[in-house]
Amino acid sequence: MKFWASIILTAALAGPAMAQDKPAEPPSPQDILDRSVPASWRTIAADDLVVMTLADGGQVIYQLAPDFAPVHVANIRQLVRSGYFDGAVILRVQDNYVVQWGRPDEDPTKPVGIDEHPPAEYDWPLKTLKFKPMPWRDAYARKAGHVASWPVATDGKSAWLVHCYGLIGVARDVAPDTGSSTQLYTVMGHAPRHLDRNLAVVGRIVAGMEYLTARPRGSEALGFYKTGPEQMKIVSARMAADLTAPEQPHWQILDSDTPTFDAWLKARANRSGAFFVKAAGALDVCNALPPVRTHP
């Protein structure tokens, strides 16, 4: 009896100790965001935000990237402020590829005050950018990572914004045409990285992506709509900076130059919890798009 009592007592004493010795579950990406401090977030400037309202009431907000495509972005600001996009339409929705908007080629409306032949703003010297590489390999470039919370890839000499989901590019004709920004597109499927350095990437969707991706697919080549009634009209496009204070949207993005971002990135690459059997231990740059949030 003394023997079994000793065994039971030992087990009872060992139970709590063993529970205490069990390693804590690593924080999830959401845990890290929930615990983040205000300094971990960048506020997106109002003059970099475009508010686009569709005829069905949907509102799409997108951020411009003037540091990567200054001439194209200047064109977009001018087109928005001159009312060029008011009355434009969603031109095509190509499944697993892009949504494109602007005025149809046959539309007689002429843009005013823009550079109709911008330079090819497809990449920039790496040494001019504060590039933060990710530790994992990239299928299309020597390295991929972030510059000021933007997804970027590099060959070691030049660097460029990549065609991830929600990123916005400028439609163009055959080179040397670079597109004047009168027609824009956003990626809505698997990242078409083969487009990198072939078109100007000028921004990203911040909110309202569902109002673009949920649209019926176009039946013509490249997903263009066959008839006018199929094309959803754009009621208005406005720079957030030009709206009244109550109307202005306020958005922040996780700052890629902070320890919070580093922890979030590591958690994204090494998913834990009951659901995951095996952590990937790696992450593609297009699965490392910094999260955004509204703020007062």
Automatic annotation (TrEMBL):
Keyword Transcription regulation assigned: no
Any GO MF annotation of the entry: peptidyl-prolyl cis-trans isomerase activity
Entry-linked Pfam families: Pro_isomerase (PF00160)
InterPro entries (alphabetical): Cyclophilin-like_dom_sf, Cyclophilin-type_PPIase_dom, E_coli_cyclophilin_A-like
Keywords: Isomerase, Rotamase, Signal
Enzyme class: isomerase
Signal peptide: 1-19
EC number: 5.2.1.8
Residue ranges annotated for the PPIase cyclophilin-type domain, each copy included: 58-214
UniProt protein name: peptidylprolyl isomerase
Organism in which the protein naturally occurs: Asticcacaulis biprosthecium C19
